[in-house]
Amino acid sequence: MIPRDHPRYRSLVIRERIADAALKGIVAMEGVGAHGRGEAFDYLIGEKTTESALLAEKTAAALFLSAKKPVISVNGNTAALAAQEIADLQEATGAAVEVNLFHRTEKRVEKITALLEEEGVEVLKGKFERLLPLSHDRALCLRDGIYTCDVILVPLEDGDRCSALSAMGKTVIAIDLNPLSRTAKSASLTIVDELTRALPNITGSCSHLKGEEIEKLIRDIDNKYFLRSAVKEIMGNLADAMD
Ligand code: PTJ
Q: Which of 28, 96, 101, 240 is most solvent-facing, going by the fewest CB within 10 Å?
């Protein structure tokens, strides 16, 4: 039981959700470690959506709205923390949702699919084929989903697949609290924000963005700006701590 008046209530509730999901076999044991790394970066960023992250989230909405065949790629941590938010984003964008795992077992794919479906997500199904140029199981994907999409959202990704997807000509939107990661550097657009804060902001922007604004947001994408802004935010917070 986490008391509601605990100053870090939200962070502790999220951590508990990851721990529960790991016990149920939804989150990989390695995903618990990945979550801890995210928590550390979130602390440095101030546990808030920064101005530049909000712009990245708006830009992600623009990319979704202009996509012909968007896909949201979901792993264990994403399903455990944000199944409902994925359902909302799917409704707002019409994107396909495909389960793609690094620590892949058929059992985990089934459990994650069931969890997403319980929250109203329509999960793309079919024959998984080794279609991406990767030596691990993230290569397995659906021909009608990730393989042929034009825009893909990859929350909590690893750098390898992010680079492979970019090299295939796809527009890759990453959500990663670590602005120094290979994923953050190789995505077309990186949202340096916590997953459960980022997703509702993307969904919210989908309902009010219109033609010219969408085009301008996409024309102006400068991923280095988003990464530099996040690093500056962290440096500012560290400097404040020295005062
Ligand atoms: O479910 P699986 O088998 O596909 O495995 C998923 C994990 C997350 C274990 C796998 O993709 C992995 O190992 O990821 P990495 O390489 O550790 O990268 C995860 C990144 O996500 C790290 O840079 C973390 O800082 C970041 N991160 C962790 N939690 C959050 C986050 N970013 C945003 N929001 C979070 N809640």
A: 240
- Site to probe by mutation for ligand 1, drawn from 77, 81, 162, 183 as the one with most ligand atoms within 8 Å of Cβ, is 77
What per-residue confidence (pLDDT) applies to 190?
98
Crossing angle for the helix pair 76-93 and 9-23, nearest 10 degrees? Answer: 110
Distance 30 CA to ligand 1 centre (A): 9
Q: Is the pLDDT of residue 1 over 80?
A: no
pLDDT given at position 150: 98
Residue 127 pLDDT exceeds 80: yes
Has this prediction a pTM greater than 0.85? yes
Q: Is 156 left (phi over 0), alpha (psi -120 to 50) or beta?
A: left
Q: Which domains does the chain have, with CATH numbers?
A: 51-242 (3.40.50.12640)
